[in-house]
Amino acid sequence: MSSAVLRRVVVHDRYQLELKLGYPLRKGQATRYRIDTYLFAPHSLGINPTSYPQSEFYRDIQHYVRMKTPSFTLAGLLDSATSPLARSEALMRNRQDGLTPDVEESLRNSLRILRAVLKSAVQNHLTPLAIAPAPMTIETEEYFIDLVASAIESVDQIERRYRALYEQLIAANASPELLRAFRLTDESISILIEDLLLRVHQLAHAWLSPPLLVKWQMTLVARIRAEIDYRTAQGYPSVLRKATRENYMRRVSALKKFTSSVLWLSTNTRREGTTLEHILFAGVAGVSMVFATLVAFYAQAAYGEFTMPVFVALVVGYMFKDRIKETGKSLSSHLLNQRLYDYRTFIETQDGRRQLGYVREKVNYLPLSAVPEEVMAARKAGPHDDLSFAGIETTLLYAKSVILRKDAFDHMTRDGMEVTAINDIMRFDLRPFLRKMDEPYEQRLMLKGQQVRSVRCHRTYQLNLVSVFTGEDGAVTCERTLLTLDREGIQRIEQFNAAGEPEPPHRPRLMLQAADFTEGE
User: Fold this and answer.
1) What is the pLDDT of residues 307-333, one digit of tens each?
2) What are the pLDDT digits (tens) for 353-382?
């Protein structure tokens, strides 16, 4: 099993960058990773410890920790005994006497996992369609037809087998909660299939010539209409019409969260080192009190108890006591920041009964002289603006240390399916970096032939992220991500290895309701 951290950086929306880290679990062993991300921002953006303190950085990031979706092919979903569909069918066999609470819980989990696994399986199956053939041939047309036809056939079988479970649940006197989970998952699966087939419909013109194109678009329309009619007949409110667009989006989002939440993990974040901080602060207060008391004793012994010199000595002693206390607290905080992280997030199972590990994180600003040589080498490699290295960048370090318990692997299962990794998804809101930017477009004069023309130029800014991954074997990997921004948000993203060579793009996947192809959940 690979022990390398799986990394993916994508644009979540105009203002948010999504960094997804996958931590493979090592069976029977504790798993440790360290990920240091150095963010290089132009000084002109006004990012510094005063304008953008660490507390604001933590406010602008959002974490999700979940189990990696189990991987199945469409054939595996139908045939494998460990697939959530087969698992649900097995749980329903010979249940005429009713369902126990444990069986109902297992069924709820299996039903909801099916939607996540089905999405991944269909996307992987149809992913080749994301890249149009050049040129279009009889072979590519046959490939498209075979791929789409096999996907539709498999999906039809999965839906038939899934929906056949409802009558069995009724016969077994399933609880209202379980029946509700079944129907919500059923609705979510129907929406999923409709969205994917709509996307295939849009791509068909790049694969098929006109005669076949018309035929297969009609086939796809009929299959999509069948999903819409099914949801209408079942009374599901997720049918997209002009009057229901707002409710539709809210419903789709809620259904997705309901089904995918079975893979989520609970987190509990605490500030690190609070006990040690209190101990150090108490020690500093004690030292300052000792100083003030010694001054008071000395003054009383030298000048008597109620004299003006004693009064002055007490005031001066208190002044120095206060300064000693505050200076000691500042030094203690600096020492703790060097030795400890800012926060520690404990990863737990949803019921909170088992702790799977924890993630430590901290952020601080660094002078360029403190940036490791290998990081600067990765930063300077590949395409860049030469002016970026004229000492006009601010460097922000975001460090994460991940420790997963050796028995975490044993608990990372869901109803007979083994989960091999934990996904840590972080969304970073970049709007604070846009505040000081100039207008995104500016008219400039240029000479074209014998004429002076006015042209519109695009003003952009670049952020560089260099990520350093350190595995348990001590191996270090550097990767650089180049973000191009303007005042309106993220414009594009490019990735390079430590040598400055462009990284091959992630294999595009068939996305839901998206204008471009990026990797799905």
Assistant:
1) 787 778 778 777 877 788 778 777 766
2) 778 888 889 999 998 888 888 888 888 876
Which residue, 404, 403, 401, 400, is CA-closest to 428? Answer: 400
CA distance 201 to 144: 12
Contact 39, 464 (CB under 8 A): yes
Scanning the structure block, which residue is given the tokens 């037809």? 145
Inter-residue contact 346 to 267 (CB < 8 Å): yes
Q: How far is CA 139 from CA 125, 208, 252, in A?
A: 18, 10, 37
Rounded to the nearest angstrom, the gap between the alpha carbon of residue 269 and the centroid of all alpha carbons in its chain is 17
pLDDT tens readout for residues 273-317: 677 777 777 887 888 888 888 877 777 777 777 778 777 877 877
Residues in the chain: 521
Q: What CA–CA distance (Å, rounded) separates 405 from 421?
A: 13
Is residue 123 within 8 Å of 517, Cβ to Cβ? no
92 CB-side CA count, 13 A: 25
| Residue 96 neighbours by CB under 8 Å, 6+ apart | 171, 172
Q: What is the mean pLDDT of residues 214-232?
A: 93
The single-letter DSSP state of residue 123 is H
Q: Which residues contact 157 (CB under 8 A, 6 or more apart)?
A: 78
Helix (H) or strand (E) holding 6: strand 6-11
pLDDT at 375: 87
Torsion of CA 99, 103, 105, 110, to 10 degrees: -120
The backbone torsions φ and ψ at residue 502, rounded to the nearest 5 degrees and listed phi first, read -60, 135
- The 343-348 sheet, strands edge to edge: 266-271, 343-348, 355-366, 393-404, 31-42, 461-470, 476-486, 489-497
Helices and strands of the chain, counted as H and E runs: 12, 16
Quick one: CA dihedral 131, 132, 134, 140, positive or negative? positive
Q: How far apart are CA 418 and CA 109, in angstroms?
A: 14
CA distances 194 to 59, 180, 254, Å, are: 37, 21, 17
pLDDT of 47 above 50: yes
